[in-house]
Specification:
The structure holds two protein chains of two kinds. Chain A is of the alpha/beta class. Helix content of chain A is 29%, strand content 25%. In chain B, strand 5 and strand 6 form a beta hairpin. Chain B is built from one helix and six strands, in the order βββαβββ. The longest helix of chain B has 9 residues. Classes of the chains: A alpha/beta, B mainly beta.
Chain lengths: 421, 101
């Protein structure tokens, strides 16, 4: 196409001026048609699938690979979460993998050559009762043993950090203290996906949107390819990174996984002046709040009670989390809810992810991140890429194998997180 | 919010109920189970995209457990039935995207 900027004089009006607008900026990634065969196919084009593809190409030199996304890139939980990043988990296995992820976050913008507003503004987790204090302190000591930055704050120190918080002892859930991880924070979630997509595409990865996987080509218990809405694609290895749809993908391949899919809702306020410069989480009053760079308050809470694939939930869940937020931050009573939405999260019985091999040879799975997967985007892709490349898990994800439900070595983060995380 | 038809109390708000996931999971004989069969009983529950027969308890009403069919895409509620009775057929002729198990 001719670049009309070169031929139209300045001040040209009407249709001709519209024609003189600069051309669209270059696409971040190439939109391509699927090839007949790949060395590896990643099913799911969310943050975890894209980061898996990126690290496969970058760390393991595997570039004849494709990411298949049934909808549009990062249109699922990647763009629906509340963007909280932290690594202060209780159990050693969790602390190791989330801390690995946080370390990757710390250099990710340079690594991908793409800005994503990663902001280490700290994450505060409040304690509201004697037993809450006890369990949060246990968490704090466990973090210290794992060399993860963590501090214990008194209510007064909490108030100093977050001046708008209500630390009055007369409320239903008074603030008795908090753990604080200064290196925690937030990032702009869709930019994270775009950054990974761009970097993966630059390394030669094919990113294919609108391509739904409908089954697998499996012979002698070995995966040979995937059946999709765009035809059959041969694949040497296949990685399932389907989040809320992981159970269905596993079914297609003939095995079962202990996952339940539930709606998790979040909401934002209109743009407000900056009043909250850290992330505040509370399990007991059941809300987590941060303020995005533009100024909207971003809040989330727990999942809706029942299994669903509808990407929406009940308003009573929103009311409940707003009631909790108002108790902590009385000034929020003047803010309005601009928008609420839901995503479908994949929850394992122990609220920990499942990353590793499956009963089918050359077929790997990465799911079960439930309500807290965003923070793990870099680490999850990093270990999944290793697992696919070597056909065996990295030591960081070995504890998160599917067979832990048979051996009984669960990593019970339900109690540790207390709230959706 | 769902409106759930309790077979004992009638139509009530979802907030009066607790969820119990897949209905009709029989308790196996623990003496004859392998570890993986036991794991399956403990941890694997149906997670279909479509109709699911599931358990609810009306904790803020009669306090009793019952089962119903519900569609996990539309949230439409189908036949309601009592535990240990014959499960009604899956409503409609919707094609399921796998059992989700």
């Amino acid at each position: 196409m001719t670049n009309t900027n070169d031929i139209l004089p300045p001040g040209t009006i009407g249709r001709r001026r519209a024609a003189a607008l600069p051309e669209q900026p270059p696409q971040l990634w190439k939109n391509v048609k699927p090839k007949k065969a790949y060395n590896a196919v990643i099913v799911g084009g969310g943050g975890h699938g894209l980061s898996t593809a990126y690290y496969l190409a970058k760390n393991h030199g595997l570039t004849n690979i494709a990411v298949l996304e049934k909808g549009w890139l990062a249109g699922g939980n990647t763009a629906r979460n509340t963007t909280i990043i932290r690594s202060n988990y209780l159990w050693d296995e969790s602390a190791a993998i989330y801390e690995h992820s946080l370390k990757l976050w710390e250099t990710l913008e340079e690594d991908l050559g793409y800005e994503m507003f990663f902001s280490q503004r700290g994450v505060l987790t409040l304690a509201h009762s004697v037993s809450d204090v006890r369990s949060k302190k246990r968490n704090f000591y466990a973090n210290a043993l794992n060399a993860i930055d963590s501090e214990w704050l008194t209510p007064e120190e909490v108030k100093k950090l977050v001046p708008i918080i209500n630390i009055s002892p007369d409320v239903r859930y008074p603030v008795h203290g908090a753990t604080y991880q200064p290196r925690g924070g937030i990032a702009k979630h869709d930019w994270v996906a775009w950054g990974y997509a761009k970097a993966a595409s630059d390394l030669g990865v094919d990113i294919i949107q609108g391509c739904e996987v409908t089954g697998f080509d499996i012979h002698n218990n070995k995966v040979q390819g995937v059946h999709t809405s765009l035809g059959t694609i041969a694949a040497g290895k296949v990685g399932l990174v389907g989040a809320g749809h992981s159970s269905l993908l596993a079914n297609f391949a003939g095995f079962s996984i202990p996952i339940q899919s539930r709606p998790l809702q979040a909401l934002v306020s209109p743009l407000l002046e900056q009043v909250l410069n850290t992330v505040v989480m509370s399990g007991a009053v059941h809300v987590y709040v941060s303020q995005a760079h533009k100024g909207e308050l971003v809040m989330g809470a727990g999942t809706d009670a029942f299994n669903s694939y509808a990407q929406r939930g009940g308003f009573h869940v929103i009311e409940h989390q707003l009631a909790a937020a108002l108790e902590l931050f009385p000034i929020f009573s003047r803010a309005q809810v601009l928008r609420t939405w839901g995503g479908i999260v994949d929850i394992a019985p122990d609220a920990s992810p499942i990353i590793g091999t499956t009963p089918v040879e050359n077929l790997f799975i990465n799911c079960g991140w439930g309500t807290g997967g965003f923070k793990a985007t870099p680490g999850s892709g990093w270990v999944m890429a290793y697992t696919i490349a070597h056909g065996a898990p990295h030591e960081l994800n070995r504890p998160f194998a599917l067979d832990r439900f048979v051996t009984g070595h669960l990593i019970d983060e339900h109690g540790a997180a207390g709230v959706a995380h | 919010m769902l409106n759930i038809p309790c077979p004992h109390c009638g139509l009530r708000n979802e907030t009066e109920f607790h969820y119990g996931a897949e209905a009709g999971v029989a308790y196996p004989d623990p003496n004859t189970l392998t570890d993986s069969e036991w794991a399956k009983y403990l941890h694997i529950r149906a997670n279909p995209k479509g109709w699911l027969a599931e358990r609810w308890v009306h904790f803020a009403g009669c306090g009793r457990w019952f089962n119903l069919w519900r569609n996990t895409i539309t949230h439409e509620i189908g036949p309601v039935y009592l535990p240990f009775t014959t499960q009604p057929k899956m409503p409609g002729n919707t094609v399921q995207e796998g059992p989700g198990k």
